[in-house]
Specification:
This is Cell division protein FtsX. This protein is of the alpha+beta class. The protein has helices at about 1-15, 20-55, 80-95, 105-115, 145-150, 165-205, 210-215, 220-260, 270-300, and strands spanning about 60, 95-105, 135-140, 155-160. The model has no long low-confidence stretch (mean pLDDT about 75).
Length: about 300
């Protein structure tokens, strides 16, 4: 009987505040959708970093005969074979180095031609203008500064370059987008909480007579509060369910059927990451409105 009464009170409350309940559902759906998307974007950035950082190398470029005036390291002209051998020996002895690959001027020119093809720029460079280099593969790409500090000032070394510089701006952009999504999510979450609290207050005020009667006949505070808490929890759970639909739809339509076809060089996150986020979204959607309603009712159900 008690359960039937609680359920009937929940139905009455949802019907009386249908407009505000709908607003709660929409705001919770948007805020939790952004929350789930931000978690997935964080995983995507981590996946991309692991993928690209594992492929980039540290390049040690040697001076050639055309670099005598470019700096103190190249003042004596092209790097000698002894200087190259010494540097390679030191690199192989470093525990952070995985392997070292030598690239000659001819090989560098071949890669240059492959990159620029038949464009006018390709004819501006000759093989002797491109420096020889060591392509250094690190066990931990974040240890680039160790290589740079050890070899950038060595005689015969023109430059030490980390290829991460070419992909770092992309990761910074994605991190910025993630922060922006979290900020918008926080704003929407505040709006959702305010709507939940106001909805509960209006519902409690409209049923203050029934509440007073229940208090007079000895009903406990928890029993009186339960219909209001469950109303908020149901609205939040519906919003969380819509958020899950938005997340799954975004993964299927935006990522799988559009971005994955347009940008094939990026290894996008899989469905396992999405499935891992959905229970958290549903849990927050259930608990957040229930707790907000519980604290809002402590004052408005005192009769």
């Amino acid at each position: 009987m008690r359960a039937q009464f609680v359920l009937s009170e929940i139905g009455v409350g949802l019907r009386r505040n249908l407009t505000m309940t709908f607003a709660v559902i929409v705001s919770v759906a948007l805020s939790l959708g952004l929350f789930g998307a931000s978690l997935l974007m964080r995983d995507q950035v981590s996946t991309m970093k692991g993928y690209w950082y594992d492929k980039v190398n540290v390049s040690i470029f040697f001076c050639n005969k055309n670099d005598a005036e470019t700096g103190a390291n190249c003042a004596k002209g092209a790097a000698t074979q002894q200087q190259k051998d010494d540097i390679k020996t030191e690199l192989n002895n470093l525990p952070i180095v995985q392997n070292v690959t030598y690239e000659s001027s001819d090989q560098a020119y071949k890669h240059y031609k492959e990159q620029f093809g038949d464009t006018p720029v390709a004819g501006l460079v000759t093989p002797d203008q491109l420096p020889e280099s060591f392509r250094v593969k690190l066990k931990d790409p974040t240890k680039f500064t160790v290589i740079k500090s050890a070899f950038s000032e060595r005689p015969g070394v023109q430059e030490v370059q980390d290829q991460r510089d070419t992909v770092e701006p992309l990761f910074n952009l994605l991190n910025g987008m993630n922060i922006a999504a979290l900020c918008v999510m926080g704003l929407m979450l505040v709006v959702a909480l305010m709507l939940i609290v106001n909805t509960v207050r209006v519902s409690a005020f409209s049923r203050r007579r029934e509440t007073g009667i229940m208090r007079l006949v000895g009903a406990s505070s928890f029993y009186i509060q339960m219909p209001f808490i469950l109303e908020a929890a149901i609205a939040g759970l519906l919003g969380a369910a819509f958020a899950c639909v938005l997340i799954v739809g975004g993964k299927y339509i935006l990522v799988n059927n559009w971005l994955a076809e347009k940008i094939q060089v990026i290894n996008f996150i899989g469905w396992d990451s999405v499935v891992a986020v959905l229970p958290l979204v549903l849990l927050i959607g259930l608990l957040m409105p229930a707790l907000a309603a519980f604290f809002a009712l402590r004052k408005y159900l005192k009769v």
